[in-house]
TrEMBL record:
<feature type="domain" description="VWFA">
    <location>
        <begin position="100"/>
        <end position="303"/>
    </location>
</feature>
<dbReference type="InterPro" id="IPR036465">
    <property type="entry name" value="vWFA_dom_sf"/>
</dbReference>
<protein>
    <submittedName>
        <fullName>Ca-activated chloride channel family protein</fullName>
    </submittedName>
</protein>
<dbReference type="InterPro" id="IPR002035">
    <property type="entry name" value="VWF_A"/>
</dbReference>
<feature type="transmembrane region" description="Helical">
    <location>
        <begin position="63"/>
        <end position="84"/>
    </location>
</feature>
<feature type="transmembrane region" description="Helical">
    <location>
        <begin position="326"/>
        <end position="344"/>
    </location>
</feature>
<feature type="transmembrane region" description="Helical">
    <location>
        <begin position="6"/>
        <end position="28"/>
    </location>
</feature>
<keyword id="KW-0812">Transmembrane</keyword>
<keyword id="KW-1133">Transmembrane helix</keyword>
<keyword id="KW-0472">Membrane</keyword>
Length: 346
């Protein structure tokens, strides 16, 4: 993650303190000098302060003095920031840069709210990624790859934003016809390609997971490969792969499966959750169950932290000096100072 910081923040206050001391000493030195100065009195000059031209020049003189004070203050701050050394501090881990993550999301109606939270959390995590590749695959009765594994974070942000907006839909509004038509169209467009087997099949979890397992490339490279899958494991229809079979396929391809279960309580839900949990934990993955969509953010964070720990990713800190804006400000203020001095002498 890149953050802009001052490498020596104390230097800013030192510079401002030096300038303040210099101003105080200059003030007293000027006052002492004025006391020793001989005054020359001019007769019949009492009318001068009432002349419009005199008032105009005096007002202009005071304005330029005020400008000089502002420029001096601004120059002091700019100099202080330069001495404090503004830098970009980037924490980067070469190990984490070899991480591939496929988001494998069940987009049946009961899962949309949870999918929204997962996508939004990854959007928030995106600025902390450096080199990791991310993919998004969604499935219901059939699967669709929203975008393949990539470290093009501009594309990832664009696609995840579109996904979050499309999934942010109140499915319950369909029951009373209170839904927003435009929002429904956006959702249906996003889900296109995930219902290829019609209404008789839904949440074919094994097939969806098997498709996600095939999303990884660069098989000759040593990389950390993981799938984060969200489903309620409520299968309708006949899949080609059962969930345990798909989990075995994932393990054979040296991919770690992490599971998130969000099923409603039904007569079959306990068995569905157990099958899902057994399939995930049998191959060393992390399994979480929650009926609260707000818990998703913490779960995603835990998975990311666990992966970082397993990779033993010692972070490298890269410091890049960024004096540009403060240097430009200082040059501009010096230019204003010279202009004001020239006008005062004119």
């Amino acid at each position: 993650m890149v953050s802009s910081v001052l490498l020596h923040p104390w230097a800013l206050w030192v510079v401002l303190g030096v300038v303040l001391v210099a101003l105080v000493l200059g003030w007293f030195a000027r006052a002492a000098k004025q006391e020793k100065r001989q005054v020359t009195w001019v007769a019949n000059a009492g009318y001068l302060p009432d002349l419009p031209s005199f008032k105009s020049r005096l007002s202009r003189y005071r304005v330029f003095l005020l400008c000089l004070a502002v420029v001096l203050f601004g120059s002091s701050i700019a100099t202080g920031f330069l001495v404090a050394r503004p830098v970009d501090r980037e924490v980067r881990s070469e190990e984490l840069a070899t991480r591939d993550i496929v988001l494998c999301l069940d987009v049946s109606g009961s899962m949309i709210e949870y999918d929204t939270e997962i996508v939004q959390r990854f959007l928030e995590l995106l600025p902390s990624f450096h080199g990791e590749r991310i993919a998004l695959s969604i499935y219901n009765s059939t699967s669709r790859t929203v975008f393949p594994l990539t470290d093009d974070y501009t594309l990832v942000e664009e696609q995840l934003t579109e996904a979050a907006e499309a999934l942010d839909f109140d499915v319950d509004s369909l029951d009373d016809y209170s839904y927003d038509a435009a929002a429904l169209d956006r959702l249906l467009q996003f889900l296109a390609g995930t219902e290829g087997l019609g209404q008789d099949a839904s949440s074919l979890v094994g097939d969806g997971l098997a498709t996600c397992a095939l999303a990884f490339d660069l098989e000759d490279e040593e990389r950390s490969r993981s799938i984060i899958m969200a489903t309620d494991n409520e299968v309708f229809g006949e899949p080609l792969y059962t969930l345990p079979e798909a989990a075995d396929l994932v393990a054979e391809r040296d991919i770690t499966l992490h599971g998130f279960y969000a099923g409603a309580v039904t007569p079959d839900s306990a068995a569905q959750q157990k099958e899902y949990q057994d399939a995930v934990e049998a191959h060393g993955g992390l399994f979480y169950a929650s009926d609260d969509p707000d818990a998703v953010s913490g779960i995603v964070d835990e998975i990311s932290a666990q992966q970082a720990a397993e990779l033993d990713a010692d972070a490298d800190v890269i410091i890049t000096d960024r004096p540009e804006k403060y240097f430009a400000a200082l040059m501009g203020l010096i230019g204003l100072y010279l202009l004001a001095v020239w006008r005062l002498r004119a």
